[in-house]
Amino acid sequence: MLNVNNLTVQLGGREIISSISLSVAPGKTLAVLGESGAGKSTLVGAILGLLRASSGQISWAGKPIERGKAALVMQEPRSAFNPRLPLRRSVLEPLYAGKLPDDPARLERLCKGLEIDPNMLDRLPYQVSIGQAQRAGVLRALIASPPLILFDEPLSALDAVTQKHTAKLISTLQQEEGFAALIVTHDMGYAAAHADSIAVLRSGHIEEMATAENFFRSPQSQYGQDLLNAAVSLGAIERAVI
Amino acid sequence: MAIQINGLSASRAGRLILHPTDLTLPVGGRIGLVGPSGSGKSTLCHALVDHLLAESIAVAHVPQSPDEALDPLRRLEFHWRQAERALGLSHDRERQRTLLAALGLDGRPLNVRPWEWSRGMQQRFVIALALLAPLELLILDEPTSALDPIIAAATLDLVDDHIANTDTTLLIVTHDLGLAATRAERLMVLSEGRIIEDAATEDLLSAPATAVTQSLVAHRNWAELPC
Amino acid sequence: MKKLFEIFLRAAVVLAGTALVTFTLLWYAPGDPAATIAVARFDSTVSAEIVDKIRIEAGLDAGFWPAFRHWIGPILVGDLGNSSVSGTPIWPEMRTVIALTMPLAMLGMTIGLVISIPLAILAACNQGTWIDRGAIALASLGAAIPGFWLALLLILVFAVKLSWLPAMGTGTARHLILPGLTLGLGVAASLTRILRSALLEARNAPFLPAFIRRGVGVHERALAHITPHAAIPVLTVVGLELAFLLEGAVMVEVVFARPGIGNFLIQAIQARDFPKVQAVVLLTAVLFVVVNLLIDISYHLIDPRVGTQDA
Fold first, then answer.
1. Looking at the structure, do residues A16 and A107 belong to the same domain, yes or no?
2. Which of B105, C119, C259, C308 has the fewest CB atoms within 10 Å of its CB?
3. Residue after which a domain boundary falls, among A129, A145, A161
4. Is residue B68 less than 8 Å (CB to CB) from chain C?
5. Domains and their CATH numbers in chain B
6. What residues of chain B, 108 to 167, have a C-beta less than 8 Å from chain C?
7. Which chains touch A (3 or more CB pairs under 8 A)?
8. Does C171 touch chain B (CB under 8 A)?
9. From residue C252, how far is each of C169, C176, C263 by CA, in Å?
10. Rounded CA separation C248/C108 (Å)
């Protein structure tokens, strides 16, 4: 279980996130919602150990997060890969890095789950569509079976139909694999469809934290309400007509 | 009354990207142009604007990102006066104040360069520039993709309010059918350079005729909320 | 404002560094600097007492930092010292030769700009056509021809064969034409290529299609948008060319037998007149720093973002 306790991160003397606490259990999904500049990417960087916390603790099952225990899926799928290497090399990289054995059966199973044609993995990143590249990004994150996967705006480069399809594939795989997922996004619809709990982040602190069910029934903060209204007004979420 | 275009087409490197298309855009209508990525939306947009401009029809196009509409080296005031001159208008402080206020930018000094404003504010400034003179057609190209949802929704509401009592036709171009469906009364679906469906929003949602549209409709939004 | 202060501070640091490096080279150069000065001023049979006297006179006996202070003090108030050969003050003589070289350098720059700007615009507007290819070929040819060879060619054609212009000397405006042309053609060659590619790049700026659709005319687009964007890379090169003109002037003045900073330097080197050589080195350094300072300030005026974005 991921536990973030009173986390504060400063960058260049400015406090980017202030005293954040949250947790994600295995098999569950937490969506961190917020506008650009709210500190979402800083939170991801801190959990991955790329940024140093000025105070607070980040732990998995009570211990600090070791290398390889958390994987990241980035926003821009194609720039997340070495442009000169076939996708297969990049996708298997976490296995080499962790000195883990190749597991062709697992690769095949994951490819099937993500609807990836294994032959596609022999192409270069810019020879596949953005949607395919993003699924390869998810494959790379999953390949070494990390217990925690962080998704940083994983769908915003994709078109509306591809977004929903990809989200569904990820969700199904999560049920089979049981990883904990922390999704950083400004897309309320995505959170409404796939998250178990919601954290609303605004200028570095958590405005509201709730189960998805409670949040979408009635957000407690004004900002959460505004986000929800915007999502309805932009057609990401539909209000059922009674 | 409607804007009528016949046989609009576009090609790049000898390949036809947009097959000859007839468009009828009713005056004062709200129309959505929807299609998956790579279907030729931007190509159609550009071809349409350039065709209408050549026919001296008052049309303005707001690109996806403000970087495609503002010169980072010139101040916003310069952009404003230049647009006025290009339209043959004299500078009118009152009109400027009203228009910026309508887009929620009242009281902000314009003697700054675009990047000194947030992207949301830049996008609104570009829309305000587009609305300087009465328009027959306003095209918004992916109006939400560069913006945070709250800002995007508010911006679209402000545009709606501003053109509510005019004859301006609004064309929203997007990959997101959910967005287009909440904002437009008529939808056109573009696929592989052809308009494959063109119907009133309700009809298209309830009875999509093609597989592409069926997929768009099935994925039009993420979830339904109990009210 | 803070940015301008930074620009000036940087220039001051570079100047201080230059002074220090110049003096360090002088200090650690092989041989005894006092003896070098003595030999230069008198001859090789100079006595030890005189060398010691010079050592004390020049402040060389007190160690590196006192000697540096002794050396830099007068320079800071504009006193470049005396010639070690004639013993006369250097600055008045240098002022005279600068006044002779300055018009030559300015003429070179003007000719360079007058040729390269229209040529680059013509090439950029006709990209890929024979006009463009011709302009590039011309510029490449210009950059490949050595300056002294071009100077001799010009003398041969315009002075010897046609007898239109004087080949050497100074005095009238007519004397300036051939040397100015030699410098100017070199400048034009490198500026044309840079300016052309800067214009082509600026013309592809992502925001320009929107300005066309907004009804902004072709002339206004060129003047108000393409020019400032193209100016940024070109400014650097114009500034550096301006400083390099000094170097070019040395060669041109020798070939055309014109008095000026070039001949001043050559004569100083031949006479081993180190204070004079050092004065030219310092002048060059100051020129480079001032030109860079001007470039930085114009950058700041055109695009305040330049150099302010941190990683």
1. no
2. C308
3. A145
4. yes
5. 2-73+134-218 (3.40.50.300)
6. 113, 115, 129
7. B
8. no
9. 12, 11, 10
10. 10
